[in-house]
Amino acid sequence: MRVLVTFAVEAEFAPWRKLRDFRSIDYDGLPLRRADIGDTEITVLLTGMGPDAGALAMGLMMRMADENRHFHVCISSGLAGSLDAKLLPGNIIAPRVLMAENQHADLTSEELSVDSELHEHAVKLGAICSNCLLTTDRVLVKVDHKRNCASRAQSVDMESFEVVKQALAWGARGVVLRAISDAADEDLPINFNLTISANKQISIPKVLMELAKNPLALPSLIRFGKQSRKAAESLAAFLDQYVQKLTTATMSPVSREAAAG
What we know:
It is a single chain. This protein is of the alpha/beta class. It has a single domain, classed as Rossmann fold (3-Layer(aba) Sandwich). The protein is 39% helix and 26% strand. It has 9 helices and 10 strands. The protein is globular. The chain starts with a strand and ends with a helix. 43% of the residues are buried.
């Protein structure tokens, strides 16, 4: 079985990279990593932050899959913000439905459902079943921003809708597994929207510039960094367990036969 796992940035992937011997692969400038876990071949793609970056990277990725090899499963992973007081930092979530904040001319609905078998597998392993994740084109920095979106979803990220949309279009089965980085009642320490680089990664110089505007935010930024790192570590442990049991515990006989091809 061949599985594609996406993260937006290296910091989200780093804890899993420490657990497994991922080898580097280059395709058209895409930062890819690959590892074999049992009979499952895992390819990791760093998309960059935001729906446009996610769509662009996945378009290139799926073109590679079309030319060389087909991915059976796509997992959109990384960190997410909570819009629900019940979802706390460090929780691993598996949303049933994905909603796009922006309209898509090529879709009749701004909602997508993840694969039910893959979702059920995640919940059985301990992920929290949430109804909906909202994909936006910006980081929700303030509690007020989160509150405005809370009636639509329980969590928020910037890539999952586009990642799963592209994967489904190319015939892969899609699921979202993410770790909560910040609580619904928690302001982020700085405006991370102003720290995104041209290649859609977090720019340390830009972070320092934002911090220079408000030096008092340093303790909160350090605390948020530790909180996010712990969430990413929990996610890495969960993903490792999830993919190890994927072929044996997840799929119907028809799905297993397709994955073996």
